[in-house]
C-alpha cells in the first residue's frame, strides 16, 4: 500500500507517524512545498521575542529523522500541483529544478493547512510588512529587527497571534500600536470579557485602534505610515499582518473534493472526504461542535494533531474516530492568560439558545498564600437543560487549569449544578477550598 501525505507540519506528520506505527510495510511519502517540516508554529512568537533562544528547538525534526525513525520519505520543496482522483495519481513540481513528475497513491491525506489572509490593500507587498505563519516568516521578522532595529510596529489584527506578537515585540524593545476593524480584540470572546484584555494591553503600553480598518500602507521603499479608516495615520517602522487565516483548499477544490459550509474541506468522523481513499486533516479540514454537531472551523495545532492521528489510523485500517471540538483555545499576552471553550454568550444566543450567564471574580489560590491573583470567569449555560455551553477566563494565574475543567465538564455533558460537586484538588498554594469553577456552578444553578 502506498500512502501519500500532502503537507508536513502538524496534521501531516502526525498522520504519517501513526500510519507507520499501525503498518510496518506501507510505503509512506510526504510532499511539502516549503523548507521546514514538523515545526512548532505555536512557538514562533516566542522565538521572535527572544523567550525561545534556539530556533532548532522549534524545528527538531528533519527529513533524515523521518527516514531513520519511521522509514517515511519526506520531499521538501515539492508542491503537489494536481490530484487526479480517477487514476489516483498526483502531479508534483520540484520547486528547485522546475521538474514535474507523477506519483500514485492508494490512500491520500490532504494536510495543506491554511494561509494568512493578506488583503489587497495598497502597500501590503512592501518589504517591512510581515505575515506570521511559518518559520520562514519568523526568520524574516527576526532578520528585519536585527538589521533595521525598528522602534515601532503596527500590528493589524487583534486575534491571538496579534496579541502574542504585541507582547513579544515589546520584549524586543519595540513600541506597539494595534489596530482591528472590529470594535474589540479577540472577537471570539464576548465584549464584556475582551474589555479586560484591552485594558490590560493598554496598561502595558499597547495603543489600541479598535473599530478602524486598515486602508493603506504608505511609504516609498518601505511602509512608514499606516492609514486607518477615520483618517487616522500612524507612523511606524514595520507592520505585522495578523487578521486571520484561510484554509488552503484550492488543490482539493480543483480535484472535486467537497468543501463544508465553513469553506474548509468537509470530512466525516474518519477524516474521509467525499472522494474515496482521500482524507483531509488539520487546518484545511472542517471540524464540528461537540455541543451541537454543527460544522465548526477553529484551526488550531491541538486539533490538527488529533485529526492527523485519526487520519493516519483510518488510512491503515484503524477505527479511531473524531469526536468534534469545543474550539478551546488559550494564549497569553504579557502576563495575562486568556482562555475560551465552547460557546460565548453571543454565539449561544445567535444559535438560538436561551442562556443563563454568570460572571465570577475569584482568586486562583488562597489569598493569604503568596502570589495569589484574581481571575474573571464568564460561563454560559442553557436555561432549559442547565447544560454548560461555554466558558471564558481572563487572569494571570490558574486559568489553564480552570478552562480544562470546563472543557472536561462540557465534553461529558455536565449541568451547571454538577460543577459544585466536582472533587477538585485543594491546598492553599493551588486553589481555594471551593475552587473558582465550583463557585461558577453555584452562581449558575
Ligand atoms: P500547516 O501548519 O498550515 O501546514 C500545512 C503545510 O502544508 C504547510 O507547510 C504548507 O506549505 C503545506 N502545503 C500546502 N499546500 C501544499 C501543496 N500543494 N503541496 C505541498 N505542500 C503543501 N495552535 C494551538 O493549538 N495553540 C497555539 O498556541 C498556537 N499558536 C500559534 C501561533 C502562531 C504564530 C501560528 C502561526 C499558529 C499557531 N497555532 C496554534 C496554530 C497551529 O500552528 C496550526 O493549527 C497548525 O500548524 C496546523 O497544522 P497543519 O498541519 O494543519 O497545517
Automatic annotation (TrEMBL):
Its cofactor is FAD. The keyword Nuclease does not apply. GO terms for molecular function: oxidoreductase activity. Belongs to the class-III pyridine nucleotide-disulfide oxidoreductase family. This is FAD-dependent pyridine nucleotide-disulfide oxidoreductase. The keyword Flavoprotein applies. It comes from the Bacteria. Keywords: FAD, Flavoprotein, Oxidoreductase, Redox-active center. The chain holds residues 1 to 445 of 552 of the full protein.
Amino acid at each position: 500500500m502506498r500512502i501519500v501525505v500532502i503537507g508536513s507540519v502538524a496534521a501531516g506528520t502526525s498522520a504519517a507517524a501513526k500510519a507507520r506505527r499501525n503498518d510496518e510495510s506501507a510505503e509512506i511519502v510526504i510532499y511539502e512545498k516549503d523548507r521546514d517540516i514538523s515545526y512548532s508554529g505555536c512557538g514562533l512568537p516566542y522565538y521572535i521575542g527572544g523567550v525561545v533562544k534556539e530556533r532548532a528547538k522549534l524545528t527538531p525534526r528533519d527529513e533524515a529523522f523521518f527516514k531513520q525513525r519511521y522509514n517515511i520519505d519526506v520531499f521538501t520543496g515539492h508542491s503537489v500541483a494536481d490530484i487526479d482522483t480517477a487514476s489516483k495519481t498526483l502531479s508534483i513540481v520540484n520547486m528547485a529544478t522546475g521538474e514535474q513528475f507523477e506519483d500514485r497513491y492508494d490512500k491520500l491525506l490532504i494536510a495543506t493547512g491554511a494561509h494568512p489572509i493578506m488583503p489587497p490593500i495598497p502597500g501590503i507587498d512592501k518589504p517591512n510588512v510581515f505575515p506570521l505563519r511559518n518559520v520562514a516568516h519568523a526568520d524574516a521578522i527576526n532578520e528585519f529587527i536585527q538589521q533595521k532595529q525598528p522602534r515601532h510596529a503596527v500590528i493589524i489584527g487583534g486575534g491571538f497571534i496579534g496579541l502574542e506578537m504585541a507582547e513579544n515585540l515589546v520584549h524586543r524593545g519595540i513600541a506597539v500600536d494595534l489596530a482591528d476593524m472590529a470594535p474589540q480584540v479577540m472577537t471570539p470572546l464576548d465584549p464584556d470579557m475582551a474589555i479586560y484584555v484591552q485594558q490590560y494591553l493598554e496598561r502595558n503600553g499597547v495603543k489600541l485602534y479598535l473599530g478602524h480598518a486598515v486602508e493603506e500602507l504608505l511609504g516609498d521603499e518601505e511602509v512608514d505610515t499606516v492609514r486607518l479608516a477615520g483618517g487616522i495615520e500612524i507612523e511606524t517602522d514595520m507592520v505585522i499582518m495578523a487578521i486571520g487565516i484561510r484554509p488552503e483548499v484550492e488543490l482539493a477544490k480543483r480535484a472535486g473534493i467537497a468543501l463544508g459550509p465553513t469553506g474548509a474541506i468537509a470530512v466525516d468522523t474518519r477524516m474521509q472526504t467525499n472522494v474515496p481513499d482521500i482524507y483531509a486533516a488539520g487546518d484545511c479540514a472542517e471540524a464540528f461542535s461537540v455541543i451541537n454537531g454543527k460544522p465548526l472551523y477553529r484551526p488550531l495545532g491541538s486539533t490538527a494533531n488529533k485529526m492527523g492521528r485519526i487520519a493516519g489510523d483510518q488510512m491503515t485500517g484503524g477505527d479511531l474516530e473524531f469526536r468534534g471540538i469545543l474550539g478551546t483555545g488559550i494564549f497569553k499576552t504579557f502576563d495575562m492568560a486568556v482562555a475560551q471553550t465552547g460557546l460565548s454568550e453571543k454565539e449561544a444566543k445567535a444559535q438560538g439558545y436561551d442562556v443563563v450567564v454568570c460572571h465570577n471574580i475569584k482568586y486562583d489560590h488562597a489569598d493569604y498564600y503568596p502570589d495569589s491573583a484574581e481571575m474573571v470567569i464568564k460561563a454560559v449555560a442553557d436555561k432549559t437543560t442547565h447544560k454548560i455551553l461555554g466558558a471564558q477566563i481572563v487572569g494571570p494565574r490558574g486559568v489553564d487549569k480552570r478552562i480544562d475543567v470546563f472543557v472536561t465538564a462540557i465534553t461529558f455533558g455536565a449541568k451547571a449544578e454538577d460543577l459544585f460537586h466536582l472533587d477538585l484538588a485543594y491546598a492553599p498554594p493551588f486553589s481555594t477550598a471551593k475552587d473558582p469553577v465550583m463557585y461558577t456552578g453555584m452562581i449558575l444553578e
